Predict the structure.
Amino acid sequence: MELQDFTIKQINKCLKEKKFSAKELANAYFDKIKNTDKDIDAYLNLTQDLALSQAEAVDQKISNGEEIPTLAGVPCSIKDNILVKDEKCSAASKMLENYIASYDSSVIKKLKEQGAIILGKTNLDEFAFGSSCENSAFKVTKNPHDLTCVAGGSSGGSAAAVASNQCCFALGTDTGCSVRTPASFCGVLGLKTTYGSVSRSGVIASASSLDQVGPLAKSVEDIEIIFNAISGKDILDATSVEYKYEKFIENNKPLTIGIPKEFFAEGINKDVEKIVKEAIFKIEDQGFKIQEISLPSSKYALACYYIIQTSEASSNLARFDGIRYGLSKQNENDLLDFYLSNRAGGFGAESKRRIMLGTYSLSSGYYDAYYKKAQEIRQLVKQDFKKAFEKVDLIMSPVVPFPAFKIGSKVNDPLSMYLADIYTVPVNLAGLPALSLPVGKTNGLPVGLQIIANHFEENKILSIASIIEKLV
Ligand code: GLN
């Protein structure tokens, strides 16, 4: 077993027993990154000085005989749309290529307080727009299981870094799929947290009513520790809520699991369907009740999501004008020229597409037909889940209808790329939590099971996931 296989609790134990120091561990991870990231391209930027000074502080505490928190000395990587003070934060966009964060995001403040070691910033689709990590302005992250395939997106760098042992855990963000899809493609766990459970302060906004930060890791126990550390009310994010994670205590009544028939319909890859169903059968064998359910409005969810997402994205991207933030070209003729050339040069194709689609949906002539309609559909999607959770405790489905695809195979067809999100976006529209848990492989590529729960019931998800984790 190499050092990089250790779980959070194992690292904590070894540090306390002085089997290795936090600095030695951080350096072992940097060596691993140096040896493997030429092929994988998970990182945009390493934060070596920060990591080593954090590690020294943890080592000092240990040698002083002080208590250390569970995350102290644990090396992690951070998606490059989450601000880390004094470090670059590009959102994988030319627009922010040289932007240095002037403050820590609230999740980073929490991780730093706990002594987690930040190794670097990971690649993503520009502004988290995408499902494959191919929309980054800088590089395409490869899937560690097959370097010719995508790592998934938008938190592809974070998922690939965890999967290739380049960090112990990572943070990503999920607006419509972005923690779960790359987790599923790379064979690691990824938790999309309940909307409001984790602060978004200091996270570069993609679509504010959908975005959530979530952890990626290699075990249920690690996911639980990280979620516990980053969740809770933050006065800097008005949408965050008072919330304390507590372990789920099973009573005598076995949990009931709903299987949405719409999520196993036409178009799903047969191997993915088989692997996911086998995992569900295994759970049934353990005495859990399985019940077919219907989420009838889910067929509208993708269209509804891409109206709401692009509307909010177009409005969030308005701040990048080259004056307040972003690429700033000189010597333009007038103010309009200045804005136009900054935005034309700073944004990539997908960002421009979203600005155009979103501006159109929000324009006075089309607002009622598109944006308002999408908000109405969003309510229907929410109601479907509400009704389902009156009957069942959890919902299970595949994460993506297919495994990781070849790099380049969908880049010229945005619609087919959007279809990858068909099972994940309903969860964001409803603000629910969901986990991607690896349950098998097809042709060497991992397949994830999606476990969805009612709001703030991450504990139920993690309780059942820890059972499945041992069965597959
Ligand atoms: N694939 C979705 C999109 O492109 C979701 C991305 C995300 O969750 N950030 O919008």
The pocket of glutamine is lined by residues 128-131, 154, 174-178, 206, 309, 421 (CB under 6 Å). The chain has a mean pLDDT of 96. The radius of gyration is 21 Å. Residues 251 and 457 are 15 Å apart (CA to CA).
